[in-house]
Amino acid sequence: MNAKTIFDLPLMDLLAFVKRCCHEGLHDTLVDLRDHSLRRIQDDGTGGQLILTEHVLGLIRRIQRHLAYEENTFFPLIEVGGHQGSGLSLIDDLINDHAQIIAAMQMIRAMTRDFEITQKMTSDCVSYYKKLVELERLLANHAQIENQILYPMLQKIS
Length: 158
Ligand SMILES: [Fe+2]
Ligand SMILES: [Fe+2]
What we know:
This protein is mostly helical. The chain has one domain (6-157). It has helices at 11-44, 50-79, 89-111, 123-157. The model has no long low-confidence stretch (mean pLDDT 91). Bound molecules: fe (ii) ion (FE2) (2 copies). One fe (ii) ion binds next to helix 2, helix 3 and helix 4.
């Protein structure tokens, strides 16, 4: 690949980059976090943390729906040029979806006092919070690359 930055990539290469670098890691983290959430509920009901865990599971389902829509509908549409014309309106829906997902993540951040780790926490809880921090980072990366690079490129070449 001769391009200097992802801004220089041709559309199909950019799409491949998004699938590989934005989606694959996110899928792995979601599966980890889902397993961890279910384990927390099963182990001890997680006490005061139950509401947090339920919120996280809801967010995971929501992100998985978003990724599935992109991978099964939107990206294949781009590959055949179908995002042009009326297909461009789908971009607004996806940007809106990103905003709602980030807002749900911010709510989880607030519930955890900015993912604060205290001495009273079990090691399981510490590792759960660290995974939430990782999810937040991957989500921000995902939204940034799609909102600021992929979608503008689609709008420009339509
Ligand atoms: Fe995506
Ligand atoms: Fe997305």
